[in-house]
Amino acid sequence: MRKTIQTNSAEETMALGERLGKILCPGAVLALFGDLGAGKTTFTKGIARGLGLADDVHSPTFTLIHEHIGPTPLYHVDLYRLESEAEVDSLGIEEYIYSEGITIIEWADRMRSMLPPERLDIELKMKGDNDREMIFETTSPRLQAIVEEISKKC
Q: How far apart are CA 26 and CA 60, in angstroms?
């Protein structure tokens, strides 16, 4: 299943993330793809808001993984600085992916062969200063239902 959703501002991107965060189930893995400035962290902030997390969410580029504790923990992973799957493997990322939290992986292309089969891929493309095209793709029936739900409100 593949679905494209357009947003026209950072606020709309965050609001879409918030709607997604409200209906995600524990154990969900989101793989984010997109260039620098595409809105990956803004979208993640919205998901955190939807999960009811009060933490300040920002890119974990230098720490690689931020843990946001809440009723459903959010694990925010940023692989921008890593260049190989061997480097990713040394992080012990499987511990997060197969947990009861929600794992969001920015720059997921850095661990493509290590990604779990049940996941939601989201590609963010810049279509101007504020416009974003977000392509949601998954083979998981559970995640397909979630994408259908958030796309109804767009």
A: 21
Instruction: Give the number of other Cβ atoms within 10 Å of residue 105's Cβ.
Output: 28
- Amino acid identity of residue 90, one-letter, is S
Q: What are the helix (H) ranges across the chain?
A: 10-23, 40-50, 85-89, 94-97, 141-152
CA separation for the pair 136, 121 (Å, rounded): 6
Pairing label, strands 29-33, 120-126: parallel
Q: Look up the pTM and report it.
A: 0.93
Residue 106: is its pLDDT beyond 90? Answer: yes
Residues of the chain above pLDDT 90, percent: 84
CA–CA separation, 27 and 10 (whole Å) = 27
* Long-range contacts (CB closer than 8 Å, 24 or more residues apart) made by 15-19: 15/46, 16/43, 16/46, 16/134, 16/150, 16/154, 17/42, 17/43, 17/44, 17/45, 17/46, 17/47, 17/48, 17/49, 17/50, 18/46, 18/47, 18/49, 18/50, 19/46, 19/50, 19/150, 19/153
Report the amino acid identity of residue 51.
Answer: L
